[in-house]
């Protein structure tokens, strides 16, 4: 009976992968920009960065998704549900990326920052050439965890009508009345993503240790 729905479930798994592949880079960009604001010498930027993180981290992901899905059309912006969910995931997990990047930057020896300033590097070059490359070593594992959480968070698509893995397995359950089989399949799909990400993270960490 499962074989008759394999195409739909595989399609849902593919959509989950696409959501993750689109949302995580967006979260990285958002998180890095907000982190730069939070360490900026400009006080209004620091305040704006902190406000963003506090608001987003204290809001449920579903709330952000619903605000985008219903708020964007009211503002005259019409985009597919898929991209609304990508934006919601990117905005939400961008706050967590921000704190990860900020923690990684804090792990960099302050002496190197002072040396970079002493030779006249502007703030932008200090961040891009000194802080971020070295901070990345401390961020590999936390960023891998965030990537896994993005994949798991994409299951929210089942609540807003995006045909991802959870929605397809729920549809399979509604047609066959086999909840254990249906959601065991979904669990296996997310487990595959989890294991794949964990393997890549371990590989990157080994390479970073060698380079160090």
Automatic annotation (TrEMBL):
This is Amino acid ABC transporter permease. It is a multi-pass membrane protein. The lineage of its organism: Bacteria, Bacillati, Actinomycetota, Actinomycetes, Pseudonocardiales. SUPFAM superfamilies: MetI-like. Its main location: membrane. Belongs to the binding-protein-dependent transport system permease family. Keywords: Amino-acid transport, Cell membrane, Membrane, Transmembrane, Transmembrane helix, Transport. The chain crosses the membrane at residues 17-39, 51-72, 78-98, 143-160, 180-204. Residues 13-201 form the ABC transmembrane type-1 domain.
